[in-house]
Design brief:
124 residues; mainly beta; 60% strand
Length: 124
Amino acid sequence: QVQLVESGGGLVQPGGSLSLSCAASGNILSINDMGWYRQAPGKQRELVATITGGGGSSNYADSVKGRSTISRDNAKNTVYLQMNSLKPEDTAVYYCYADGRQYYSGSDRYFGLWGQGTLVTVSS
């Protein structure tokens, strides 16, 4: 069964940078869109950035546009998020998301999964 594992969270000072990665593993046949979402304490989960299967198109939340870059390595089934000029309001648990098709129980099946989340804290 497909799993997503994130890494790269931690404590960063305001104005600093952080790179997150999320690797998908398992009997993957194909991955469509991948993305990053975040959830701050007491708030709903919100989109940060998404990237299409071929990596040719990406979409960003206005709050991170211009200081974040999403990318993917399809050979490694991995999506990355580089964030610069971090602000205290970027503090949240960051979740990756991926959907696609897997080989499971003898057949080709759709999957749509969330990672376990990685905490990013922006504070001095």
